[in-house]
């Protein structure tokens, strides 16, 4: 199943607590909690381009499965990491945050971020 497509955030759990824990400023958390972010994913084989637009903030990460790439984190920090693919799941560890993105079906993208015991879960639906 290809990840390619455009997805809009439909629901999320644990946003405020998780973003506080990763060090996002309170004003950005307050602005971001009600914004329906849009994720655009281009997949060509093992090569991915992911663009996430949350209001005025645009986060772009380009990577190839199994190869070290540079990522911009939620706080704007640049880190190097390797994304691995397991079935319909993409897994990466950025600093202490583990990210698992799964194509649940052809129209639903679920992302789970874990930091210690804190979990942030978002569900996005295909819009294009």
UniProtKB/TrEMBL annotation:
UniProt-listed SUPFAM superfamilies: Lipocalins
Cross-referenced InterPro entries: Calycin, Fatty_acid-bd, ILBP
Keyword terms of this UniProt record: Cytoplasm, Lipid-binding, Transport
Compartments reported by the entry: Cytoplasm
A Pfam family it matches: Lipocalin_7
Molecular-function GO terms, alphabetical: lipid binding
A Gene Ontology cellular-component term: cytoplasm
Similarity annotation: Belongs to the calycin superfamily. Fatty-acid binding protein (FABP) family.
PANTHER family, sorted: FATTY ACID BINDING PROTEIN
Protein name: Fatty acid binding 1
Organism of provenance: Labeo rohita
